[in-house]
Design goal:
Elements: E1 9-10, E2 13-14, E3 18-20, E4 23-25, H1 30-42, E5 48-53, H2 55-61, H3 65-72, E6 76-79, H4 82-90, H5 100-110, E7 117-122, H6 127-138, E8 143-148, H7 157-169, E9 174-178, H8 183-191, E10 199-202, H9 206-211, H10 219-224, H11 227-234, H12 238-265
Parallel strand pairs: 5-6, 5-10, 7-8, 7-9, 9-10
Antiparallel strand pairs: 1-2, 3-4
Length: 266
């Protein structure tokens, strides 16, 4: 396989995504995603990014042009959440879930024998370090290229350059960014071309999950697609934020039903 761009077909790999309300989503299984990442690291080390795309991300993509551009230009737009699966089903798309926290663990494990170097950028003070330590304990052969926690303030050009130099000097293969939706994608869009890193991925809550500063839903909830419900029970304040996700999902379902009705009426 040779990666050319997100709209190309190379070998047995079709990198053309499906679309939910005009927003691209790729449906690859774990093995396929890891092989694509491996190819990007070993083949040409071009600067690519992966977008973890859920219904909240799709909601903002309809309203924030820069975020839609980020999704459209991603090499992989991976489904994060049952809402995207449901919305896709009503629009005739079969969507496979592969969320950010699972992708991070999969890459940490799979990359051990390949010598992948991981850089962790984000979280509150100390979170990235704790995350790296915990993953290293879980996967002893994993290589940590470095960690960095951006300050919660506007940084100077000198500080930004120091950050970029540290990341580039680390010889990282993947940079994991945990700054929350929109912020992490904006960070990647701003700095990706200045980084000598093949893959940039925003994984949000994965930092807190694996640093131990937030509790992730048990496997039974995740498998059933109810991780969002578990988090809502633990953090009721998230209900207001989740309204954006519900808004997009129901709009997508309505659009799918309307389109099907019009097609059948002809």
């Amino acid at each position: 396989m040779v990666l050319e761009d997100e709209k190309s077909t190379s070998g047995n790999w079709n990198l053309i995504p499906g679309y939910v309300s005009g927003i691209p989503v790729h449906s690859f299984d774990r093995k396929q995603v890891l092989e694509i990442i491996k190819e990007g690291i070993e083949h040409d080390r071009a600067k690519r990014h992966i977008c973890i795309t859920n219904t909240e991300s799709m909601y903002y993509a309809k309203r924030v042009a820069a975020h839609l551009e980020f999704i459209n230009t991603s090499t992989l737009s991976l489904c994060d959440g049952i809402g995207s699966v449901i919305a896709g089903k009503f629009q005739g798309q079969k969507i496979t879930r592969f969320n950010g926290p699972d992708l991070l663990l999969a890459c940490a494990e799979y990359g051990q024998k390949l010598g992948w170097r991981h850089y962790f950028c984000g979280g509150k003070e100390g979170v990235a370090d704790k995350l790296a330590t915990n993953l290293k304990n879980k996967y002893p052969e994993m290589k940590v290229a470095g960690t960095f926690c951006p300050p919660f303030r506007k940084t100077s050009e000198e500080e930004n350059q120091t950050m970029l130099d540290n990341i580039n000097n680390s010889q990282a293969d993947i940079i994991w960014v945990g700054l929350g939706l929109l912020k992490q994608e904006s960070w990647i869009a701003q700095y990706k071309e200045k980084l000598n890193v093949p893959w940039s991925v925003g994984v949000g809550a994965a930092f807190d999950f694996y640093a131990g500063t937030a509790k992730r839903a048990p496997a039974v909830f995740r498998k059933a697609g109810f991780e969002w419900l578990y988090r809502l029970i633990l953090e009721p304040r998230m209900f207001k934020r989740n309204l954006n996700s519900y808004h997009f999902m129901f709009s997508a379902i309505r659009d799918g039903i309307t389109k099907k009705y019009k097609t059948n009426s002809k």
